[in-house]
Amino acid sequence: MSQKGALGPLGRGGTQVPTTPEEGKSPPEASSQGVPTRGFVGLFSGLDLPNLIQMLAINNFTGRVEVRHKEKSGELFFNNGNVVHASAEREEGVGALERMLAWTEGELLLDAGSSSSKTTIEIPWHALLIQAMARLEDKKAALEPREQETFPRSRSSAEILRARALHSSVLKLQGVKSCLIGEEATGDLVCPASGPATIRELFSELAGLCRMFEETRPEASGGPPGRISLILGARGWGLVRLEQYLIAVELEKGTSLEEVEKKIRGMWEKGE
Amino acid sequence: MSGTKASPLEPLLSIHGIRGAVVFDEDGRIISLYPETATISPWVDSLRRWFQRDSSLLRQLRELVVFYPRAMIFWRKLEKLEKPAHGLGTEGRGAAELGEERSSKVLVVIGDATSSASLLRLNLDVMEHSWKSQGIDRVLSQLGSGVSGGGFLGKIFRRRKP
Rounded to an integer, what distance in angstroms lies between the CA atom of residue A227 and that of residue B67? Predict the structure, then answer.
């Protein structure tokens, strides 16, 4: 049996305020037979579409998501967490998803259990999101005035998604107990997005340590350090420097940082 | 017999890729260096600047290995438990029972990129155990004329109470 639930509005910022149909929100659509549909109505004002896709993917969701934006609408079909079909504004596949990702407000309707007879998307969800968000960012950048380049560049959604995807993959590696990903230059933690201040402080300190070793390296070192291992208290940590990012992994005893580093670099190159 | 005492750090150089090793006391003074001609300044000065800061990271730090393309730096805090009055070992008796206080030294080993950190770690574990059982101060004796590190390492140790 399918389970429907309307999630609206689609927007950014704010907190999740779940409501029930009795609390005044529009109830989910009834089935064609007029039988009341099981489900829930929720106001997810802090949820945007990329986050929803991630959440559904991580939870191996199978079903349909309807996205409504003003007079427009589109739909996404999931099969075991992967997006298998998207359609919007007479377009299908990745192009349709890109259109929907550009909608910054609207409503979402979940219909768990529904399946699509079409398959227009055949790439893993994280690669799909990265690709779609990157193209969206490129389109936005092309429209933005050039003088903005004089200001510090903020992280794009595509960059954040790529870092999140890597974070999720690193945590699945054998021997990795925890993982922090952030920008080495600023010491800002990107993943996990939220956490205690002590974790942010630790990451900032680790980033500072890396910068010090890069800036003050002796000539005989042959270049900046690629990785650093530390024992903090009784816990083993490894630091891997990857483009602008610093990846800090807490390792189980006996885990080779060199092996973990190779896997991280491989995953990054593959866009996992 | 020459009568020259062999450096306790000498065995480290038998490990493939290891070029030199140095031990500092908690005030940053060099108390043991091998080989004595080893150039350590470019490797140690950056650590010195970093350790002038006081942070929770530094207080927790026990070991640090930096892998450069052509070099490896291995840093380890050597902690000992000693009885101040007699400097006796601690084997078989708890620190609290003996009224001991904790003090530390820092070992820095410099190697090339081919040196194995895990092999070095294993050797150091064995050596450190041996040094502790003999008394770290006796094994790593004060050189007296060592280069002052300006007290930078003292910041990262739990200092003795007056």
Answer: 6
